[in-house]
Amino acid sequence: MAKLGKRTKAAREKIDAKALYGVDEAIKIVKENAKAKFDETIEMAINLGVDPRHADQMVRGVVTLPKGTGKTLRVAVFARDAKAEEAKAAGADVVGAEDLMESVQGGNIDFDRVIATPDMMPIVGRLGKVLGPKGLMPNPKLGTVTPNVTEAIEAAKGGQIEFRVEKAGIIHAGVGKASFSEADLKENVMAFVGALNKAKPSGAKGKYMERASISSTMGPGVKLELESLSSES
Question: Tell me, what DSSP letter sits at residue 142?
């Protein structure tokens, strides 16, 4: 087991590992412990009472964080002709068709989101084994296969994040940066939790949200009191 650095050890000693903290206090603690030399990402991990191996228990979706992600997203768009020009005008970082497919097949994946016009899906479909495992495959349900490329690019650049439950029933998401104010982080956290609740699948039985924690990139996790994440609180 790796030895903990002095800073990490000191931060962990301040947090009661067994205690559950309200969302306001948890955000305050996480911000105070984000002392790295870079602007750490604030991340949430939520354990859901689902088994994603069953199609009716799959949880995935998109949500626009009201205060943005604090990260500049690079967007690739598969489009031709007028739609390709529209994508460039809307601020896409990479635009192409067969040429972009070949570039991706060659291992050039210098983007965080992929958008495609519907007519490009036969080409994009060939990249399933490359883009799929990275969570980059465009999907009509997530609004990333669309003729409205301008709208999709603006959403991606404007704080929209995708979420998808992992095999163990856990969802991870970045909800901002340590430099954000506590109020802005809370607004993003509540928007993300709200989107998760809306995405509750038909096959989910029993308790949906089982456990939740929040942390910064380098800081320790702080366990959250689930009641403090309800919109009524």
Answer: G
* Backbone phi and psi for residue 98, each to the nearest 5 degrees, phi listed first: -60, -35
Q: How far is CA 216 from CA 23, 71, 153, 196, in A?
A: 14, 14, 27, 20
In the structure encoding, which two tokens stand for residue 61, read together? 């979706």
E strand segments, the chain: 41-48, 60-64, 75-78, 94-96, 113-116, 160-164, 170-177, 209-216, 222-223
Neighbouring C-beta atoms of residue 176, cutoff 10 Å = 27
Using CA atoms, how far apart are residues 24 and 55, in angstroms rounded to an integer? 35
Per-residue pLDDT of 102-111, as tens digits, reads 999 999 999 9
Tell me the pLDDT tens digit for each residue of 79-117: 999 999 999 999 999 999 999 999 999 999 999 999 999
Q: What is the pTM of this model?
A: 0.79
Distance CA 182, CA 34 (A): 13
